[in-house]
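User: My collaborator and I are trying to settle a disagreement about how two of our proteins should look. Neither of us wants to argue from intuition anymore, so we agreed to look at predicted structures for both before our next call. Could you fold the first one, then the second, and keep them clearly separated?

Assistant: That sounds like a sensible way to settle it. I'll keep them separate. The first protein:
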Amino acid sequence: MTIKIISGILILVTVYFGITHGSRAFQKPSPQYLEMMTSLGITDTMRLVIGAVSIGSAILILFPQTFFVGNTIRALMLVLMMAFALKAGNYKFALIEIPFVMMPLALIYLGHPLAREVQ
């Protein structure tokens, strides 16, 4: 029961981050945000695709049937962002992403709280 509560809380946090960070891609970017994306080599089109994938993967995490796929996509997107940061020499950004990569991996391990128990 405790694992299901922890998993539920992690799902809510992950979905919140996925939707808020993804929706930021569709808003008018601040100069600091644009500078960061440009320094990572991310174009406006790439930014919109990353935003859409982030929102989509967050929604997939909500449902037990697509939970694994959503978390896998989310983890891959975060690793991709870390790779862009490392390529640009922004090690601080890459290190900051490590806990966020751990969240979908921890969720995969814990499982969806509403999924049926496998006997």
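The second protein, kept apart from the first:
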Amino acid sequence: MFVHGYKAITHNKGPGIDTKNNFRILLQNEFKGLLNKSTKIWINYLLGGAVSALLIWSLYRQVYSQLNHIGTPGFSWAGNTIFLVFALLLMPVNLGLEAYKWKLLADTAQPLNYRKACTSYLAGIAFSIVTPNRIGEYPGRILYLKRKNTLRLISVSVLGAFAQLFAVLFFGVVGLLYYNIAYPGFWEKVLFVVCLGCTIGVIYFYLRFEQWAPKLQKIKWFRKFKTYGQLLKRFSMQDQVNILLLSLLRYLIFSAQFMLLLTWMNVSIPLVSGFLMTTLFFWAMAMIPSVALAELGVRGQVGLFLFNHFSPNSIGILIATFSLWAINLVIPALLGSILLFRMRWLR
């Protein structure tokens, strides 16, 4: 059938007929005919199953490896499990806030209900576990949505990433100020000045992003992203402030979880000083390059360096760090990996 169709195109070619274009259309039609509905369903299941299995296997290997490193034969603790329960209860609050923030961002590009925002967010976490510093989270969310206006979603993703980055830098400045007072040193002062400058730059760029976007369009490579400026003008200043407040609130929830887990593991730290050191912990984790599946070792070293100032309970610090990682990354990534099994890779 394909050969006859091609002959018909070439032999009946007349003036004004684009043979190459007709041939391309014929190829597309033949391919669509091969990929009937049942075939697409099977391919979707195979692709989704392969991706889900790979991510779940990676999660299992990493958790198993880290538990072996942390585990100490005969170690036990007498911590009150109510602190662990409270930390776990904060997980859906944290996930819900981020899903709501993503809904606010994506709504300016396309209508998105809260349920779809949640599943997209979880899929993004699953994708992020194999990328440096979890940069694959927003691309994963966009890929899961599978919509035509991808450039607009990229725009709002940039805005959301800058809001969360500001939260980390803002509290990082507070933590570094405390550290410079408590443990003064030359490099500590340098880090404080650099972090303060970056924080000012990020918030300026965030609040005036729609003014910077047209300048980016003058660069040849960025011209195809001209929807940046057109889209972000739809955000009012109040919208941007609300997104920023949600990012700051999420940060406080992360900090509360870590404090609860440290208390659960009998790591004795003062409330105010512990919170300020926690802000340094999250700041350091954002600044140090790492892959989510391998970052637990980095988290453990950073946690020991910071919290050993207050407590010699190194095992407790490591387990609290692992628990925070598992609650906020492993469990949501596992849910996201299962969702990817049902994702329609071909439409």
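Some points you might bring to the call about the second protein. The mean pLDDT is 75. The chain has one domain: 39-341.
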